[in-house]
Design a protein that fits this description.
It is a single chain. By secondary structure, this protein is of the alpha+beta class. The protein has a single domain, classed as NE0471-like N-terminal domain (NE0471 N-terminal domain-like), CATH 3.30.2020.10. It is 14% helix and 34% strand. A three-stranded antiparallel beta sheet has the order 1-2-3, with helices on one face. A three-stranded antiparallel beta sheet has the order 4-5-6. The longest helix has 7 residues. The two termini are 18 Å apart.
Length: 76
């Protein structure tokens, strides 16, 4: 099992700085998802900036979330 999210901070250019349970900090690029279904709502910066840690992953105010494994494996 991959580490889980303990903290998330929205940054410029639709990047997230994510802290994982193993202490690693990585950047996750949300841009590739912005044209897909409900993720397009995240182009609204106030909504994008509403991201919070939730049950080992992340979630935005509109209920959109991402798999914690995806966040860990696709972050740099």
């Amino acid at each position: 099992m991959n580490p889980r999210v303990t903290n998330v901070k929205p940054e410029n250019d639709f990047l997230l700085l994510i802290t994982f349970s193993n202490g690693e900090e990585k950047h996750f690029d949300v841009k590739p998802y912005l044209g897909i279904g409900i993720f397009s709502e995240l182009q609204d910066l106030s909504l994008f900036n509403s991201v919070k840690p939730c049950l080992g992953s992340i979630q935005w105010a509109n209920g959109v979330d991402l798999c914690p494994d995806t966040l860990y494996l696709e972050s740099k």
